[in-house]
Amino acid sequence: FSPDLDTTLFTLAGIASATAGWEPEGETRALQGMLKRLGGPDRPLLGDKSLAAPLLRAEGLANERRLTEITLDFCRRLGIEALVLPMSDDPVRTNVLTDDGAMTFQQYYNELGCDPAVRGLQYAGAAEARISDEVLDALHAEDLEAVVIGPANPYHGIRPILELNGMRELLRKRGAPVVAVTPVVGGKALQGSAGKMMRELGREPTALGAATEYRSLADGFVIDREDLGFAKGVRSLGMRVLGAHTVMRTLDDRVALARSVLEFARSIREARALEVE
Question: How far is residue 112's CA from residue 130's CA, in Å, rounded to a whole number?
Answer without folding.
Answer: 31
